[in-house]
Amino acid sequence: MSRKGKRLYEGKAKILYEGPEAGTLVVHFKDDATAFNGEKFDVIEGKGVLNNRISEYFFTRLGEMGIPTSFLKRLNMREQLHRKVEIIPLEVIVRNVAAGSICKRLGLKEGEPLPRAIIEYCYKNDELGDPLVAEEHVTAFGWATPQELDDIVQYTVRVNDIMSGIFAGIGIRLVDFKIEFGREYAGDMVRTVLADEISPDSCRLWDFKTNEKLDKDRFRRDLGGLVDAYTEVARRLGLLNDNGGGPRPRPKLVKG
User: Fold this and answer.
1) Which of 69, 134, 155, 157 has the fewest CB atoms below 10 angstroms from its CB?
2) What phi and psi values does residue 176 have, to the nearest 5 degrees?
3) What's the predicted TM-score (pTM) here?
């Protein structure tokens, strides 16, 4: 059981509550599925449970690899405990393979390898549709300082390397993903930390052999089988046993 306090915020896929101790938050993963800035909506039973487990796994592994995060621990099937941070209003997107909006913007063919990993930024504002912005916008409007932006780039490159290796080890291509960062305050000190979540809701994941989609594109494109796809990701990561619960040995990280 989580001793959560009052509800602080409800987003498309998660609810944030005051945590049991000062400076903490309880993050509750919902079964809601949304796409196209909320224009498409459904409730898909079991999605939140899977995202909770997968996000816990990646935040734990990244923390072990030296990436500072807000994550503290998983509380139960649907909830995690995080340190309270001030979210930097940016979605940081990493693209390894052409897919999604970059294909429309630049006339690229889906599945085309990119010359190198590309980092993009979107300003987090639902009313504006989370518009794509440049680094100049980020620093000019004070959404992040130049030092924070340097930290974000450094951590994002490492997150991409680590996650790409983990997924490659289980036969999955990390096509692209979205992450968010926050400011963690400790007295007069402030540091940039990875926050929010990492799950098939925020990643594009394709099977290496078949290119089968194992992510939220199954909902966006009416392909069906979203929970089955998320379950397959969790299974390959060793998060489910044959009965659907309990840990299995970790996959090995494959270095490119």
Assistant:
1) 134
2) -160, 170
3) 0.92
